[in-house]
Amino acid sequence: MSGRMSDDDLFGREKEVTVLDALVAGLPEEGQALVVRGAPGIGKSALLARAARQAERSGFTVLSASGVEAETHLPFAGLYQLTRTMLDRVPRLPPVQAEALLGAFGMAAPPPAGQPPQLFLIALATLDLLSEAAGRAPVLLVVDDAQWLDSPTLDVLAFMARRLGAEPLGMLFGVRDGHPTPLDTLGLRELRLPPLTPGDAGALLDAVEPGLDPPLRHRVLDAAAGNPLAVIELPAALRRQGAAAAALTSSAVPLTARLEQTFASRLSDLPTDTRSVLLVAASDDEGALGEVLAAASVLAGFDVAPDSVSPAVELGLVTVDEYRIRFCHPLVRSAVLQSASLTERLTAHSALAAVLDGQPDRQIWHRAAASGRRDESVAAELDRTAARAEERGAPAVALAALERSIALGELPSHTAKRLLKAAGLALELGRADQASALLHRVAPLKLDVLERAQTVLLREGLETDVSNNVPRLRLLIATAEEAADAGDPGLALRLLRTAARRCWWSDPGRAMRERVVAAAERLPVPELHPELVFVLAGAAPLERGATVIERFERLESEGGYDALAAATLGTAATMMGGYDHAAGFLRHAAAGLRAQGRLWLLAQTLVSLSFVSAHTVDWESGLPSVAEAARLAEENAQPRWLTGALIAKAQLSAVRGELETARAAVERAERGVIAVANPSNLAYVQITRGLIALAAGRHAEAFGCVWRVFDPADPAHHPYLQFIAIPVLAEAAVREEDRTAARAALSRLDGASAATTARLIRTNLSFAHALLADDEDAEAAFRAALGLDLSRDPFTRARLLLAHGTWLRRRRRVMESRAPLRIARECFASLGAEPWHERAGQELRSAGERGDQSSPADWDLLTPQELQIAQLAATGLSNREIGQQLYLSHRTIGAHLYRIYPKLGITSRGQLRERLRLDD
Fold first, then answer.
1. Are the C-beta atoms of residues 284 and 359 closer than 8 Å to each other?
2. Which residues form the HTH luxR-type domain (predicted)?
3. Which residues pair with 324 in a beta bridge?
């Protein structure tokens, strides 16, 4: 009897079959993904196979793959299984996607040195490839034993599962219980297979073993415990085992082990050459018949003929075609390996390595598996394998190769380099515990200067305490100076960048901040080096503010910086109040990072851009940036940046008057701040809570929230974000005691900011002076503030006008008050700042003038993602070009546009530009 069930064996699975049939039937209308989960032998494979046949009968394209434990270290091996029949269509993809996908399979050159891994380009290429196929006929991906797919393939499949949308593309995954995968976090529908009921198990047993003696029948059903594979396999095994049958029915032995034993019991009667073939096939990752026979011949010492497999086929252990040998169940594979001795297993891997010339990655993994001792030559090859995996966008595979290299290496001088490289990859993958363990192994080793510096930098990546830690800053500065003296100014600058970020988070005092700046300026790097500018902006945002602004202006005029540099400069600009410069750098960075597939960094960049947009109340840029940043941060497990996106969303929602949305977002953000210690985000949370309270007209509550940013004893205190918070504090200061406290805080900020020329800081301070001025000084303060260039700060200007008009009306200068109030009202209406718009209308009514009735802007009719797609389509980009930018398929873009047109009252793409007024 075959180890894999057929349709006739699906007793008791009527509900599960109905679910899969419904999924297949619904694919032409909507993409769907489903995880079928259960224990070994519970029937996952049979259900998946039935769904595949059903789809094929319906005219679908069915692509299948099966995970194998031996393949988990081969990047994109599973993806190649899925797409190998479609590779002739790859040249029709955009060239950058085609190169990335073929490079993943080793069929094209990897990206040049210094260029980023291309995992997301590979994923987008796969999505586009399958989307094209789905345009002809629905496509169903069937992936069995997904828990054993290689990590990069699972990442690509997770990327696709998030973006199915309207694609006629289905995904079915079989996953064994107890094996976590990246699919677990996606919220996919799950079909869990329970054991068969006693009645269904009995019906299955009667179908496969009719007329079984009642005592044996009872023992089988009791031992099988509702597992269909056990019901099928145990009867014959019990008959063969005789005295050893008790072990097969012992409840003390796990069912999986008992099933392995049933398969192992068949092996002893097989011919020697057949057992050699099975052992090689179980040790192999491809199952290519010619390759297995060649290695089996090496193992046996004579030519092994193809018909040597026949006895195993007759026993239902494997299936064979002219190209491939497959085990009928993963437990057969594990039974073959378990029944072999250690020496036999090592020899099988050695035989495979001997026949895999021209396949260096597979060959070295088998050489490593065959090595029963340390071998520096194997370790060195694994280092090269790790480098190739990293180039191809597979850092998890690179990390596994390095860990094996560490275990096999003989030279202590190489161990530290391997450990440090592996720790860096673990940090990149978000595996902090693994990185910490690797660095712990570095501690007792003899390190050179640069290795010690790398260790300090990596440990900083693990550090969660970002409070004022002066000893830590001293270590970073001293280590940077040592790295510079050792000839690596780049490493020194990265250490000082980390120190500058600590200074920004929590002020260690001017002397220590000046030490960081001085150490950076002694390095032999150009003064416009983006990381040097970052150090100045982070460590001395006020004292060196004028210098940093001047360098921003030079960089803007000279250009020539890449996406990474632009991201660094944009972050630096937001740290020191240069929002007007930040916007340009961040938009440049976002475009470049999109093109390069660096979605981790893109999420961070979009969060920073969202904060800039929230400050200027730029909905058309801010809403799409916030939505995309949140989506990417969730996809890439970046909790800190998800928190930032939620804060920006809350700010934008508050200004729009969507207070429930704002509160929900900031509450979720606050939970993230607690989970991921970050003082800047905690300060932003309080500023945002203050803005929400202001929008609701609760001034005392707003003041209490924002005052925490100014209180040195409060965890939300932040020395530099006070300059962002001061306008909210000033607007909230209605009670006299609050105004007194706010004036004192403003005075301190005036003194601290004397050296900076950052326009945002100057604007915010002038705004606060106008709102907090005594009656005798208010007129001049308002005139001074309104005399600034506020063209890039329309929300600040409108709030100033509202405050000025209100002040005039309350001084009974009613006629004078109407003009600023009218302008403020119109500005708030155009910005969509509904609470402030209503407030301006109330003031105008109090001044004897009726309010207006405003209609929603066109962007207000669309979701953030629809707005982003509409904006891109209005610039003339095709659906495919838009999809490449947003990492969605072109069919999904088309479906969005189909919904957008009726919302905007238009019928064609050509009307978008005029409807969205992009030329305004």
1. no
2. 855-920
3. 288
